[in-house]
């Protein structure tokens, strides 16, 4: 019995919706060639129990939709500005990654883990996670950016917050320099927000 035959109709519908969301986010944020991304998504879908022909239909449908939207909404696409800001931060010695982890906690953990593996350890990091990206799939929504220091010089919470807030200020400067209009109240406990973030990049 194949994995798909073991799923109920409701479970299969949920799996298809999940694969569709994963496909859109991957084609939005993955820098690898679209055919490589598509092959990985199809394999993932099949392994999770999606029939192969249905997985191909979902993945290629998402790829084609993103391509159409990239042409239709090219004038309002803001993804290039954000990725440019991230590239600038990377050049300044910070870790800046799109679609890192599924949730906030996982993203923070992965950012620190990645930073500590690097030969030249970044001072801090910024990212958005998969659930953040999913909110942008069907049109402009607020994008939330998380940030923090990799290693703290301070031992107390107030000092650690100040170090995080210094990272946040650097991120805000890079975003504004890229032509974005981010919002943030300046505290370590809150995210940086980019309102009405329009992400219409074409699959690579």
TrEMBL record:
InterPro entries with a match to the protein in the record: DUF6891
One of the Pfam families matching this protein, by short name: DUF6891
Superkingdom of the organism of origin: Bacteria
DUF6891 domain mapped to chain residues: 12-199
Protein name, entry field: DUF6891 domain-containing protein
Organism per entry: Gulosibacter molinativorax
């Amino acid at each position: 019995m194949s994995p798909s035959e073991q799923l109920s109709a409701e479970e299969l519908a949920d799996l298809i919706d999940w694969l569709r969301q994963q496909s859109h986010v991957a084609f939005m944020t993955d820098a690898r060639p679209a055919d490589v991304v598509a092959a990985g998504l199809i394999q993932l879908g099949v392994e999770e129990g999606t029939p192969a022909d249905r997985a191909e239909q979902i993945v290629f449908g998402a790829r084609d939709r993103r391509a159409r939207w990239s042409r239709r909404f090219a004038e309002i696409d803001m993804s290039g500005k954000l990725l440019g800001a991230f590239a600038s931060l990377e050049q300044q010695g910070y870790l800046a990654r799109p679609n890192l982890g599924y949730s906030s906690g996982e993203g923070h953990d992965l950012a620190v883990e990645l930073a500590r593996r690097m030969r030249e350890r970044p001072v801090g990091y910024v990212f958005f996670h998969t659930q953040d990206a999913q909110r942008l799939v069907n049109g402009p929504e607020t994008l939330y950016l998380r940030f923090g220091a990799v290693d703290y010089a301070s031992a107390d919470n107030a000092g650690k917050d100040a170090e995080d807030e210094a990272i946040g200020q650097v991120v805000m400067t890079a975003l504004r320099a890229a032509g974005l209009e981010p919002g943030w109240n300046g505290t370590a406990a809150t995210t940086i927000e980019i309102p009405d973030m329009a992400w219409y990049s074409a699959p690579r």
